[in-house]
Specification:
By secondary structure, this protein is an alpha+beta fold. It is 29% helix and 41% strand. The chain has a single domain, classed as Nuclear Transport Factor 2, Chain: A. The N and C termini lie far apart (62 Å).
Length: 150
């Protein structure tokens, strides 16, 4: 009985080590970034952005620097009905640098909102986002996004 128990414990240990190795050395950081992406989609979490974040999307002729209202990033004229913006981001690839302080993410997204003049907007797009680890937390340093038609 004691031998069976020891064998079970040893097998469990080997299986856990194999699982951690198979998950990859960056699994914890990738999971943290995925969590930030989900929080940003759900709450527009401005805490996920560095103060000097750079972002560039369709409505803008040049990159924008600094935090702003997420709705203003979509429609610079401020014509989004407050609370109508819904974003669903699906990360396709997240790569963590060897230094563990930078990462990039490639994702697709769907953005839905209503405008004050009664239009309903439903946009699909892709984005490339750069993440920087600051104080142990992943923050968005830069985002480039473009809509596309399927």
């Amino acid at each position: 009985m004691q031998t069976a128990r020891r064998t079970f414990i040893a097998a469990t240990f080997v299986a856990s080590v194999f699982t951690l190795h198979a998950a990859g050395p960056n699994a914890v950081d990738e999971a943290a970034i995925r969590k930030q992406v989900a929080l940003t989609d759900e709450k527009g979490d401005e805490a996920a952005y560095l103060p000097d974040t750079v972002w560039w999307s369709n409505p803008f002729k040049k990159p924008q620097i600094g935090k702003s209202n997420p709705e203003d990033r979509i429609h610079p004229k401020g014509d989004v009905v407050p609370g109508s913006l819904k974003i669903t981001t699906k990360p396709a690839r997240i790569v963590i640098s060897d230094s563990k302080d930078l990462a990039y993410e490639y994702s697709t997204y769907n953005l839905v909102s209503d405008t004050k003049d009664g239009r309903h907007i439903d946009i699909n797009g892709a984005l490339l986002r750069v993440w920087q680890k600051v104080g142990g937390e992943w923050k968005t340093a830069s985002t480039f996004s473009r809509s596309y038609q399927e």
